[in-house]
Specification:
117 residues; 11 strands; seven-stranded mixed sheet; mainly beta
């Protein structure tokens, strides 16, 4: 079965950095687009970053230049490097995939990132 396990969240001061990891299993990782979403308290879940199988990346406007998504196909892991963190980045961050041929989305349980001012 498809499993996504996030790690790397925590408490950091504004201006600091964190690297999130998402370990994936149960599908062919290398051929699939992987996504990071986040959900702040009282807000809707939003797409933060995407990386395709060809390693093309896209970012939500507020994180451009600060966050970097990457993938390691040998380790079936996708990363989100977050630099220059701001209090407004505080949220639960989720890993997401809709594996080719599966027709549905899969989500991890999320990892909490708290940025203090």
């Amino acid at each position: 079965q498809v499993q996504l396990v996030e790690s790397g969240g925590g408490l950091v001061q504004a201006g600091g950095s964190l690297r999130l990891s998402c370990a994936a299993s149960g599908f062919i990782f290398s051929i699939n687009t992987m996504n990071w979403y986040r959900q702040a308290p009282g807000k809707q879940r939003e797409l933060v970053a995407t990386i395709t199988s060809a390693r093309t990346t896209t970012y939500e406007d507020s994180v451009k230049g600060r966050f970097t998504i990457s993938r390691d196909n040998a380790e079936n892991t996708v990363y989100l490097q977050m630099n220059s963190l701001k209090p407004e980045d505080t949220a639960v961050y989720y890993c997401n995939v809709r594996p080719r041929g599966y027709g549905i989305d899969y989500w991890g349980k999320g990892t909490l990132v708290t940025v203090s001012s």
